[in-house]
Design a protein that fits this description.
Blueprint lengths: L2 H8 L8 H13 L3 H17 L3 H11 L4 H13 L2 H9 L12 E2 L2 E2 L9 H10 L22 H7 L1 H6 L3
Antiparallel strand pairs: 1-2
Helix pairs in contact: 3-7
Amino acid sequence: MTETEFWQLVTRTTPDQDQISLADNLKSKLEALSDDQLVEFDKFFGQQMRRSYSWSVWGAAYIITGCDSEYAFAEFRCFLISLGKEWYDKVVLNPDDLGQLTQWPEKDGYAYPFLDEYDLIAGQIFEERTDGELPFVPSGMATPQGKKFSTKKKHLKANYPQLSEAFPF
């Protein structure tokens, strides 16, 4: 599997595509892959999860939703991956660029940029087929990269001006 093939598999059709259809779509695509391809897919997914495991990306999630747990941050990073390579790369370099995204999946009328268990689909398929588990690929380090973001409003507004405008607090 190439990196291009990986991104073709994970990218949503629209930024506001709902979580269920997105997961179903990925599952049907992954079911067509061989076991070796599933292993490669999972390796690429883990690499992208690690790449986005930074305090600056977490700060963006905090502004948008108040994200304050490791689990929610993992689901947020799955959402970033689902936006596709162009958006993902842009956000990893400058998380404030998420403020330029005009469509969001919603829940109860609010932006809901989380994908529950999107990162587990390949492993579930592999396990169903082989009764084994995919090789472990860590999705982060002991702590996120960089300096922890400040939750003070003035610091958030200074560091994330676009997101602060799009998601006023």
